[in-house]
Backbone:
């Protein structure tokens, strides 16, 4: 690991990412996730303006229907995440740049590993929707995409992992949590 906190110094033609400190790399990963989700948001906005909400909904679902498995497979491979339990699923989400950039999350797992909770304490997408009073985009993100993709991701890791939302938007106040999910292993 390097000792550079940023690139404020002179240009180094031999610079490598490994020259950065772990804190600088973490900031870079978070920024990458924000860019990734920002591109998705811009794409959705352009499709909505050009073709309408119905086409945007259909296209977004098609894109994420083909992309979501990568958000499990790539972190598993890159970070050598072993197993097929709730802990393995949660580890994937802890390092997925899109998931980690969009949400601040509290994870809990029972001592026996058969039950888990995911509580989103901050959702940047929901904050955007609330600021812009965009209930269509909120419905897309929370109900049309994440609503089905979170359970599908769980079952992809292990068909015995089941989950349900215990809290979903809309929320009555910004002080409320955006959403929460419980997970369990079926016998």
Residues:
């Amino acid at each position: 690991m390097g000792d550079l906190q940023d690139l404020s110094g002179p240009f180094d033609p031999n610079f490598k990412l490994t020259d950065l400190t772990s804190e600088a790399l973490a900031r870079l990963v978070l920024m990458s996730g924000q860019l990734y989700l920002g591109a998705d948001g811009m794409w959705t906005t352009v499709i909505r303006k050009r073709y309408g909400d119905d086409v945007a909904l259909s296209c977004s679902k098609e894109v994420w229907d083909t992309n979501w498995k990568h958000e499990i497979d790539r972190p598993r491979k890159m970070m050598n995440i072993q197993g097929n339990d709730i802990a393995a699923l949660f580890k994937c989400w802890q390092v997925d740049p899109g998931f980690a950039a969009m949400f601040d999350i509290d994870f809990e797992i029972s001592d026996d590993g058969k039950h888990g909770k995911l509580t989103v304490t901050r959702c940047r997408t929901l904050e955007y929707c609330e600021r812009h009073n965009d209930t269509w985009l909120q419905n897309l993100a929370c109900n049309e995409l994440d609503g089905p993709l979170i359970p599908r991701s769980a079952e992809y890791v292990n068909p015995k992992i089941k989950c349900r939302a215990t809290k979903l938007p809309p929320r009555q106040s910004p002080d409320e949590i955006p959403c929460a999910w419980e997970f369990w292993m079926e016998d």
